[in-house]
Amino acid sequence: MAGRTIGFGIGIPQTFDDFSTAASYLGQFVPRAEALGFEGLWVQEQIIGDAPVLEPVTLITYAAALSSRIRLGTSVLITVVRNPVQLAKSLASLDQLSNGRITVGVGIGGSHIPEPVFGVQRSSTIRSNNASGFCVGCAPHCFSSFVVQLSARPISFAGRLPARARQ
């Protein structure tokens, strides 16, 4: 394994004592992390909690505008409480605007996710085989190559996965 290096990422601050300072702080944090050689900037999804938290897709979109080389990632987006087509479109747009720098982790949450707050009934979510969650994870790499089938539940995707997404 000689010659291989390990890249390190760092979490982007998502909560602040005073949110009026968030943009200014992030405007310094993101370029500094890139200048220090971190490989990636990471966020996580915390929709409801004890403290207010910046939404992850919006935050890495802002980070993309503040940087040019560093990768941008979500450790987990909870797909069962999001519209998969809207999420795929947002991620595909971010992927284009960031020149392909995003990495998306997806998950289906757990029993602590209050799905009814989001208009989702627990019985309608797919916990054991969340195909829509998997496809949303690959959508930024292949959104233009897939046709979204809106006629059935769960949402399915059809198309050929480009070589870039198969790597």
Structure commentary:
This protein is of the alpha/beta class and 167 residues long. The protein has one domain (9-166): Alpha-Beta Barrel (TIM Barrel). Helices cover 32% and strands 17% of the residues. It has 5 helices and 6 strands; from the N terminus they run βαβαβαβαββα. It has a 4-stranded parallel sheet. Strands 5-6 form a two-stranded antiparallel ribbon. Strand 5 (146-149) and strand 6 (156-159) form a beta hairpin. Helix 2 (56-65) packs parallel to helix 3 and helix 3 (84-97) packs parallel to helix 4. The chain is globular.
Would you spell out the secondary-structure blueprint of this structure?
Layout lengths: L8 E3 L10 H14 L4 E4 L12 H10 L5 E8 L5 H14 L4 E6 L23 H12 L3 E4 L6 E4 L3 H4 L1
Parallel strand pairs: 1-2, 2-3, 3-4
Antiparallel strand pairs: 5-6
Helix pairs in contact: 2-3, 3-4
Straight-line N-to-C gap: 21 Å
The CATH class, by name, is: Alpha Beta
The CATH architecture is: Alpha-Beta Barrel
Q: Characterize the overall form.
A: globular
Q: Could you give the order of strands across the largest sheet?
A: 1-2-3-4
Mean pLDDT: 77
Q: What's the CATH topology label?
A: TIM Barrel
Largest sheet: 4 strands, parallel
Return the string of H and E elements.
EHEHEHEHEEH
Q: What fraction of residues sit in β-strands?
A: 15-25%
Class computed from helices, strands and strand pairing: alpha/beta
Oligomeric composition of the shown chains: single chain
What number of domains? 1
The whole-angstrom Rg is 17 Å
The name of the CATH superfamily reads Luciferase-like domain
Pick out the low-confidence regions. Answer: 124-152
Overall helicity: 25-40%
Count of individual helical segments:
5
